[in-house]
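Entry for the shared binder. Reason: the reviewer on the internal report wants the predicted structure included alongside the sequence.
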Amino acid sequence: MPRLVANVVDIAQRTITPAEVVWEQGQIVRITPTPDETPTTYLLPGFVDAHVHVESSMLVPTEFARAAVVHGTVATVSDPHEIGNVLGVAGVEYMLENAAQTPFKFCFGAPSCVPATTFETAGATITVAEVEQLLANPRIGYLSEMMNFPGILHGDPECLAKVAAAKKIGKPVDGHAPGLRGEQAAEYFGAGITTDHECFTKDEAIDKLAVGCKISIREGSAARNFDALYTLIGEHPGMTMLCSDDKHPDELLVAHINALVRRAVAGGVDLFEVLRAACVTPVEHYSLPVGQLREGDAADFIEVDSLEEFNVLRTWIDGECVAERGMTTLPRIEPKVVNQFQPRHVGLSELDVVSIRDEQMIRVIEAVDGQLVTNCLELSARIVNSEGAKTVSVLPAQITEDPLPAVDLKSIVSDTGRDILKLVVVNRYRAAPAAVAFIKNFGLERGALASSVAHDSHNVIAVGVDDADLVAAINLVMDSGGGLSAACVSEGAAEVLPLPVAGLMATGTCEEVGTAYGKLDRLVKAWGSPLRAPYMTLSFMALLVIPALKLSDLGLFDGGKFEFTDLVE
């Protein structure tokens, strides 16, 4: 029988004891103290990412697992609504099928909001009946984040039916309620919703904790709320968890939940409460089949070098060593490719924003680095004469015998001097006009970037300094059937990372995908973007359920009023 002597960390008993751990057939059979031993390493339960969209790593589940185990992660609570928005229930089944090929412990949810809203074009709808069927599957552990919090607050029958279906069979319901406070928070979580990962201030989190909601403290590639929230771990024991939500492959190569554990301990939070949040609370909340380093438990544990640095030396799942000293032992499995993508080339004229005035105020999305929320600005537009000296006849509201004379058409364009760039969303499911708006804080001085990862409906989204670069970047994604791209016509630059699995995931390894993504990331930063994760930030600029101003394939959307709004003031 395999055995190992180390300092065993018992989170529940708050002890650290030199001991020999023995396991057989995937189960711990004995833990025996060895007081005469002086081991230098530590054993503790494996880490759990309490809320993540695997698709956002751009890796299929088997490849995500191969990367995550290196950092001591043995399980995730995974919401498959990204692929659900593209392929419906078939997308969820794809994730289950692929994940079944690895010992990593994925807990997938039944997507509650596909599509997230009716104000965008998705590839599929998941009905109440389909949610009920998914929840009946023992491999589905919970109802995924209820993003339509206005629906819960206003008593939408479909939203309430999905929550009721999960409650009926005793499966938890994840929340998604950015900025919700006070009575509204109490009403939303009182409907039976048990968690939230969208808090971006401590006061907001405390409001939600007060009504019994567990807080998943998020630190992803774009949304980074750890610094604002991590002290809650010690202040509200057993009510916090750690999650990434969205993690790009270049960052997953470097670290995962282990980095958050290290930061929390370094920040002065009690060691055992940090480990409780990282290893225990998600297992208890979601009834995960993950061992807790006790006799009789599944042999899921990790060996680390210290309880300050948490450098992971080895990871075991069901008694199998799946990672050792920075390398996974899990085999590479070639994934099946599934997709729903109707490519078409976009032309320059589609992106023209016409004005007949020399001066014009417009609504501009203000991106906030490290946050999913945006602001709505009202700024003066940069207006130039349209190429080709086009003209248009402008008629008065009441047709008269004397129509107004023809006037020169003018165009509203990007203004790099004030960092106001053109933002475009193009329907990837059928031919339709492009939606165009403007955004601040992407910082590009040249070039454009585009992506078919655009939460949550995953149409093609792009931002750039001029129409030629935008068209080039968008058409690179179209030609690849989905992917990330960067283009600068003046420099002859044209780079693309294909994402053939639903336009969301690649078929390569984390190293391959991370390297390709890193090249794109460096390129757009060289063109001026100061954002920490430009592609991840771009992917959320179509997420209508996060205020304040976003752009769907159908138009500019006011997230506060939950309705479309005009670009022009």
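Summary line for the report: The chain has two domains: 3-328, 348-393+404-564.
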